[in-house]
Amino acid sequence: MPLIPTPHLLVDAAVVRRNLARLADYCTQHRIGLRPHTKTHKSQRLGSMQMELGAVGLTVAKVGEAETMADVCDDLLLAYPAVDPARCERLAELAEHVTVRVAIDSAFAINALGEAARSEATTLGILVDLDVGFGRTGVQTIEQSLEMAQLADQTDGLRLDGLFIYPGHIGSPPSEQIAALAAVSAKTGAAIELWKQHGLNTGIVSGGSTPTALQSHLVPQVTEIRPGTYIYNDLNTTYRGYCTLDDCAARIVCTVVSDAVPGKVVIDAGSKTLTSDRNAAGEQHGYGLVVEYPRAKIVRLSEEHGEIDIRDCDRPPVVGARVSVIPNHICPCVNLQDQVWWKDGEIVEAITVDARGMLT
Q1: Confidence (pTM)
Q2: Is 291 within 8 Å of 325 (Cβ atoms)?
């Protein structure tokens, strides 16, 4: 393996393939469409791998990601409110070449997207975002979802395609998700029934997340799911019981640059590499797992410094040593990299993070 400068993000190809195959097989078994969220990897190559394994399409967060993934997929869902004219115009232009759907929760968004679509003489698919518990976006009641659906259905340039839900509030271990998913199913089912009474299309019910991915059949109304993190996994998905450390495909390789302060070493990966996202298991677990020194704890980050408490380590790392860190949250870590290093057996090559920094 070449000596790659640190810090860098190293991805184990075998683990990625295993993660992809596990969820693809689950979706096939339960007849659920898989529309992976590309915000985790932001890579055309990995998006292509997901499509080759039977994904029905890809999910994106921003228009830049959609424009990038349109080269490898012709069916895209923007799982983010598009309301500003520039964003809506770009989506309408993209719809000339691929199928574009957008999740919305306001009349403002419907009118803005409709105007853009008419201007470009294209059609945008609409999924109405219904809040099922996370409390971030989404109309609050099934009656409000009906109002949004009716407005979208009546707006020229738009096509009502169905419902959008996100069970992001469910962060318990899989064995403890049954009651929460039953509540999601009840609200989703009630909305679908109300829509059907008014003759509206509920053909697509898009849901899912990595934490609930392998329990998605407990919301039988869902026709497709949008997990993202599952392709790489991270410390948060591990600590919550959704995978094991062996399922974590991505690790930040760092160099120890200082041991001058007693009881501590410093690595060359700070908040500009690991991000400041905290651990799902609590602040006491720090900013990631140092794989070679599991009793060490990354206690503080500044921009370029990662401070590691090594007092519980029998043989702590020395200056110049390389260590690997499984980050708390892999998605923002990827967005901080121009490329990731893809390790496939003995072959290591750079893969461009094609949608890196595409936040509009």
Answers
A1: 0.95
A2: yes
